[in-house]
Design goal:
668 residues, 25 helices, three-stranded antiparallel β-sheet, mainly alpha
C-alpha cells in the first residue's frame, strides 16, 4: 500500500477506532476503567429493569397523567391528569412529559410507563461516575457508582413512576456540568448546569433548588478564573435558572382560566400558588393548603436531627450516612492546604454542600415529606464515600495507618448496617453478622499488610488492595440486601418504602390504613380489564363486580367528554388506565382542591360533557374516612356537590357496590 493510498482507507477505520475508544477509553486511562464502568452500568440496568412490571402501573396518579399526555398534546404540556384537561397533577409536567412520549411511541403498558424511570437511573449512575472521576479519579468514581446503584431509595424510585427519578438525574447532570466549568471558569458549562437545575424545577419545583447553595459556593470559590468572572458567572447562572424554571410557569399564569386546566394542589388554579403553598414552602414550613401537613408531615416521623435514621427513612438512605460524614470531614481536613482551584477540594465542597443542605431541610421540614425523597441524597452520599475512602487509602504513602483506617471505617460501617438490619429481625438475619465478619477479616489483612517489614512487598500490596475491596463490599451488604428485596416487591400508591419493612412505623405506606385505595399493592380494578396494577382486588370497593361498572360506563358514555366524575384520584386513575377514557378527578389528588364548583359541574352536565358521577368508591379515600371524608366528596372540593348529586341525580344499579349516579337530566 502506498502512502498516497492510505488516506482513502482512513474513513473506513474511524468507526472501528471510535468503538475501540469507547470500550478502551482514552490513552491516559487505565485499561480497567471503561470495562468497570460498563460493569456497573450493567449492574444498575439489571437492578432497575429486571422484573420491572411487578408493580404494574405503580402510582396510578402519574400513570394516568402519562396516558393523558400520550393522547393530547395539550395535556402533555400542562401535565393534566385527564386528556380532557380538567385538572393537572400536583407537580410540574416534565416527568409526565417523558412518560407520555414513551406511551405515545410504544403504547400503554407497565413497561412503557416505568422503563423511562429505570433508564434515568442507569444514566444517573453513569453520569455520577463521570462527575466523581473528574475530582477524585476512577477508583473513587467506581465506588461511588456502585454505592449509587445499590442504594435502596434509588432502586425503589428508579423502578417507580414518581418524579424523583428524573429529578435525581437532572441534578447529577448539573453537578457534572458544574465540575466541568471549573477548569477555566467556563460560562458555557455553568449555563448548562443552571439549565439542568431549571429543568429539575419543572420536575419537582423547589426541591431542585436545595443543591444551589453548594453549587454557588463551588463556582464562586473554586472556578479557575478571576473574582470578577466568577461573580459574572454566578449572576448569569442565576438568570439561567430563573428562565429555565419559569418559562412554563409564566405561560400557564398568562393563559386565561378558560383555556387551561385547574392546577392540581393549588387553591386558586395558579401554579404560583402551588409553588409557594402546598408543593413548595408549605412542605418546608407546614403551611396550610390543600392537604398541607402538620408537624412531621404524617409520613416520615418527627422532625429533628435523627429523622433520617427513623423507621420510615432508614431503609431508604441511612446505611452509609455516618461513613459519608466521616469521609467528608476527613477529605476536607486532608485538603485543608490545597489550592483554591484543587479539583478534590471542589468535589468535597460540591457533594458536601449538596448533602448538608438537603439533609438539614429533610430533617426539619414540618410539612408533607415522604421518605422516598431521600433518593436526592444518594448521589452526594455515594460521591463522598468513594472520594473519602480513596483519599484515606492514599494516605498509606505517608502514614502507615492509612490502610488500617480504611479497614476501621469499613468495619464501623458494616456494624452500623447490621444494627439497622436488626430492625427487621425476620429478614435474613445472617446478613449483618456476615458483613461484620468480612469487614473484620479485611481489617486484619490490612493490619498485616501495613507492617513495615511487609509493606514494600509487591504481593502484600496486592493483598492490601484486595482486603480494601473486601471491606468496601462488606459495607454494602446491608443496603444491597434491602435493594435486592425491593426488586421483587410490587409497589403502588404514593408512599412506597423499599426493603422488607420495619418492626414499627409506616413501613407499609398508606395501603393498610386506607383499604388499598392509596398505598401498597392492591389498588386495581378487581375482575375488570387489565390495569397492570399489582394485586387487583383493592380499588373500587374490593368488589369483583366492578367489571360491570367499567362495562356500564363505557357502553353508556355517549358523547360525554368525561366517562365519570369521581373524587378519588387513585380510583380515577385506575378507571382511566382500564378504559383509556378521561375521568374527572373532582378535588384533585387529595379531593380537597376547590374544583369543580357545583355550578361548574351542573354546566358540564347540562352541556353533555359529563353524565355519571360517583359519590364514593367503597375502598378509596372518598369513602373510607381518608382524605375525602366518609362516603362523600369532602374537603374543599365538595361545594355542596354530594348533597345535590344524591338528591337530584338517579342512582344506577349497575351490579356493583360503588355509588354511581346518572345526572343526564338532573341539570335541567
Amino acid at each position: 500500500m502506498t502512502a498516497a493510498a492510505r488516506p482513502a482507507f482512513a474513513p473506513r477505520l474511524r468507526p472501528v477506532e471510535a468503538l475501540r475508544s469507547l470500550v478502551r477509553g482514552s490513552c491516559d486511562e487505565a485499561a480497567w476503567v471503561r470495562p468497570a464502568l460498563f460493569g456497573v452500568l450493567t449492574l444498575a440496568a439489571v437492578l432497575y429493569l429486571w422484573n420491572l412490571t411487578v408493580s404494574g402501573y405503580a402510582n396510578t396518579y402519574y400513570s394516568a397523567a402519562a396516558l393523558s399526555a400520550s393522547k393530547s398534546w395539550s395535556a402533555w404540556f400542562f401535565g393534566s391528569f385527564d386528556a380532557a384537561n380538567f385538572i393537572t397533577v400536583d407537580k410540574p409536567p416534565l416527568s409526565t412529559m417523558v412518560m407520555g412520549l414513551s406511551v405515545r411511541i410504544f403504547g400503554l403498558s407497565s413497561w412503557t410507563i416505568l422503563a423511562p424511570e429505570a433508564l434515568a437511573g442507569v444514566a444517573t449512575v453513569g453520569v455520577l461516575f463521570l462527575a466523581v472521576k473528574r475530582s477524585f479519579g476512577p477508583v473513587a468514581a467506581l465506588i461511588a457508582a456502585i454505592v449509587m446503584a445499590l442504594t435502596p431509595a434509588a432502586v425503589l424510585i428508579f423502578r417507580f413512576n414518581n418524579p424523583d427519578a428524573l429529578l435525581t438525574l437532572l441534578l447529577v447532570l448539573s453537578a457534572w456540568a458544574l465540575l466541568r466549568s471549573l477548569d477555566h471558569g467556563s460560562y458555557r458549562w455553568m449555563t448548562l448546569a443552571a439549565m439542568c437545575v431549571g429543568f429539575a424545577f419543572l420536575t419537582k419545583y423547589l426541591q431542585a433548588y436545595l443543591v444551589l447553595p453548594g453549587f454557588a459556593l463551588v463556582f464562586g470559590f473554586s472556578a479557575n478564573t478571576t473574582p470578577r468572572r466568577r461573580l459574572q458567572g454566578l449572576i448569569a447562572a442565576f438568570a439561567t435558572v430563573l428562565v429555565a424554571s419559569g418559562w412554563w410557569v409564566a405561560i400557564v399564569e398568562l393563559l386565561p382560566a378558560g383555556s387551561k386546566p385547574f392546577i392540581g394542589g393549588s387553591t386558586t388554579g395558579s401554579a404560583l400558588d402551588l409553588i409557594f403553598g402546598y408543593d413548595g414552602l408549605g412542605r418546608i414550613f407546614g403551611a396550610s393548603g390543600p392537604g398541607g401537613g402538620g408537624a412531621g408531615g404524617g409520613f416520615s416521623g418527627e422532625v429533628g436531627p435523627l429523622r433520617l435514621f427513623n423507621d420510615q427513612f432508614f431503609g431508604e438512605i441511612a446505611w452509609l450516612i455516618p461513613l459519608a460524614l466521616v469521609c467528608l470531614v476527613a477529605g476536607l481536613w486532608m485538603r485543608r492546604w490545597a489550592r483554591r482551584t484543587d479539583a478534590g477540594l471542589a468535589g468535597y465542597l460540591l457533594w458536601g454542600g449538596w448533602f448538608v443542605v438537603t439533609a438539614i431541610v429533610f430533617s426539619y421540614m414540618s410539612g408533607i415529606i415522604h421518605s422516598y425523597y431521600a433518593v436526592a441524597l444518594a448521589p452526594a452520599i455515594a460521591a463522598l464515600v468513594g472520594a473519602g475512602l480513596v483519599d484515606v487509602w492514599s494516605a498509606r504513602a505517608r502514614i502507615w495507618l492509612g490502610g488500617i483506617a480504611v479497614g476501621l471505617l469499613c468495619l464501623g460501617s458494616a456494624w452500623f448496617g447490621s444494627t439497622l438490619l436488626d430492625r427487621t429481625p425476620s429478614f435474613d438475619p445472617g446478613f449483618g453478622t456476615g458483613a461484620i465478619l468480612l469487614a473484620a477479616i479485611a481489617l486484619f489483612m490490612l493490619m498485616v499488610a501495613s507492617l513495615p517489614s511487609l509493606a514494600e512487598n509487591t504481593a502484600v500490596r496486592r493483598l492490601a488492595v484486595g482486603a480494601a475491596a473486601l471491606g468496601v463490599c462488606a459495607t454494602l451488604i446491608a443496603p444491597a440486601a434491602y435493594a435486592l428485596d425491593t426488586t421483587g416487591t410490587a409497589y403502588g400508591g404514593g408512599d412506597p418504602h423499599p426493603g422488607p419493612g420495619t418492626t414499627s412505623g409506616l413501613a407499609g405506606g398508606f395501603g393498610g390504613g386506607f383499604g388499598g385505595g392509596f398505598g401498597g399493592p392492591g389498588g386495581g380494578l378487581p375482575g375488570g380489564p387489565s390495569t397492570g396494577l399489582p394485586g387487583d382486588g383493592g380499588g373500587l370497593g374490593g368488589n369483583t363486580s366492578d367489571t360491570a361498572l367499567l362495562d356500564y360506563l363505557v357502553s353508556n358514555r355517549g358523547g360525554a367528554t368525561w366517562i365519570v366524575a369521581i373524587n378519588s384520584a387513585q380510583d380515577a386513575g385506575s378507571i382511566e388506565l382500564a378504559t383509556g377514557l378521561p375521568v374527572m378527578a373532582m378535588g384533585g389528588f387529595t379531593g380537597s382542591d376547590p374544583t369543580p364548583t357545583l355550578d361548574q359541574l351542573k354546566s358540564d352536565i347540562a352541556s353533555g360533557k359529563l353524565r355519571f358521577v360517583m359519590t364514593g368508591s367503597g375502598g378509596g379515600f372518598g369513602s373510607s374516612g381518608g382524605f375525602g371524608g366518609a362516603g362523600g366528596f369532602g374537603g374543599g372540593g365538595d361545594s355542596g356537590i354530594t348533597a345535590w348529586v344524591t338528591s337530584t341525580c338517579k342512582a344506577v344499579d349497575y351490579g356493583g357496590s360503588a355509588g354511581l349516579y346518572d345526572c343526564a337530566r338532573a341539570a335541567s
